[in-house]
Amino acid sequence: WRSRCPPHSSNLFLLQGPREEILYLPCIYRNTGILKPDYLATVDVDPKSPTYCQVIHRLPMPNLRDELHHSGWNACSSCFDDASKKRNFLILPSLISSRIYVVDVGTNPRAPKIHKMVEPIELYWKCGLANPHTSHCLGSGQIMISCMGDPSGNGKGGFVLLDGETFEVIGNWEHQGEAVPFGYDFWYQPRHNVMISTEWGAPKALVNGFNPAHVQEGLYGSALNIWDWTTHKKLQRLDLGEEGAIPLEVRFLHDPSAAEGYVGCALNSTVFRFYKTAEGDWAAEKVISIPSLITDILISLDDRYLYFSNWLHGDIRQYDITDRRNPRLVGQVFLGGSIVRDGPIRVLEDPENQQQPRPCIIKGKRIPGSPQMLQLSLDGRRLYVTTSLYSGWDKQFYPDMIREGSVMMQIDVDTVDGGLTLNEDFLVDFGKEPDGPVLAHELRYPGGDCTSDIWL
């Protein structure tokens, strides 16, 4: 489980896995004013360990200004029936430099090392793509990475295939000329022969911050793209309209027979449910709408709860989704954000009639920024959260986080009736890193988790 963990046969099998002991987080220096390479941090989250709540290893990248972002595995549950496959390499794309790092976490999980680098020119020349984002392993043994742009910074939603053994770039997954206008996240569901991808925006528009005028200029996306998983053909483009602008993380239910899931749409803070219709095509409906700005979302391994972060307001919400069309809010906790009551913003009207929240203070530290990236423990009882979204937007919306660094927090989850409670004894302060404050982003367990594994 802890070192060369094999993929798992089902989401319910993974649900019974052991408690997490370490987490991997990419840490970013781009846009902080500190000229140091990004690095992969290993954090001890074992309460029995003498180094609990500490960064126990740092693996610096050999380049500057990569903007490490999201990560994936060389093998996941799609490879369950292949005994030769081990989850021993972390695939770590760089959102801005377009470089891809392959990190060996199998030899020594507590001290990863770089195994291989895929240079940007490989993506440019072989695929005509840049700005890699989401990485998923495939049942074929290959690795697939979604991309957001072309080498010039224009929007282009295509997919790079890597060989799962050599990590060489093979080429595009999509057919020539069939890339979509924008790219970001994707999830596939083989039993329904479908893959769904989402849209953020053109890299040249979002590279240094968010300009609302770019939305009107058509530089941000608003659609779900439906693909035939077997033939790689585009099937549909589901335009979610203004309410669904900037659809980010897409999550199918973990049950591989389920033909539905959810997507969080950032700009107007909505969640859409997508589903397969009786006619065999796909449709979407809005099921949640809150004051903005929804960013990361995830679904518990038992498909009972949906969680998402609200990066502007500063809260994390838990919804019971047993009634798939009518999510029910059962948990909420504020962890900072832009509307804290002693801040410069006064809320004049709140459709939810909530008071402005108090600042979040843990172990005497006032938390800068706002909750963003989420990762749930396998048993669903602990929710880990970091506060950095993307360095260019962090700098624009939360300059105090640029100065002080991001943090990692943990929330205790009531898995019976619903409910979220901040663990006030847990804090990893990335403002105290040896080379200065840094921005920690996505969280990964060595043994797989609810955002990395897809079951066949």
From TrEMBL:
<keyword id="KW-0963">Cytoplasm</keyword>
<dbReference type="GO" id="GO:0015031">
    <property type="term" value="P:protein transport"/>
</dbReference>
<keyword id="KW-0813">Transport</keyword>
<dbReference type="GO" id="GO:0005634">
    <property type="term" value="C:nucleus"/>
</dbReference>
<keyword id="KW-0560">Oxidoreductase</keyword>
<comment type="similarity">
    <text>Belongs to the selenium-binding protein family.</text>
</comment>
<keyword id="KW-0653">Protein transport</keyword>
<dbReference type="GO" id="GO:0008430">
    <property type="term" value="F:selenium binding"/>
</dbReference>
<protein>
    <recommendedName>
        <fullName>Methanethiol oxidase</fullName>
        <ecNumber>1.8.3.4</ecNumber>
    </recommendedName>
</protein>
<keyword id="KW-0007">Acetylation</keyword>
<dbReference type="GO" id="GO:0005829">
    <property type="term" value="C:cytosol"/>
</dbReference>
<dbReference type="GO" id="GO:0018549">
    <property type="term" value="F:methanethiol oxidase activity"/>
</dbReference>
<comment type="pathway">
    <text>Organosulfur degradation.</text>
</comment>
<keyword id="KW-0711">Selenium</keyword>
<dbReference type="GO" id="GO:0016020">
    <property type="term" value="C:membrane"/>
</dbReference>
<keyword id="KW-0539">Nucleus</keyword>
<dbReference type="InterPro" id="IPR008826">
    <property type="entry name" value="Se-bd"/>
</dbReference>
<comment type="function">
    <text>Catalyzes the oxidation of methanethiol, an organosulfur compound known to be produced in substantial amounts by gut bacteria. Selenium-binding protein which may be involved in the sensing of reactive xenobiotics in the cytoplasm. May be involved in intra-Golgi protein transport.</text>
</comment>
<dbReference type="InterPro" id="IPR015943">
    <property type="entry name" value="WD40/YVTN_repeat-like_dom_sf"/>
</dbReference>
<dbReference type="Pfam" id="PF05694">
    <property type="entry name" value="SBP56"/>
</dbReference>
<keyword id="KW-0472">Membrane</keyword>
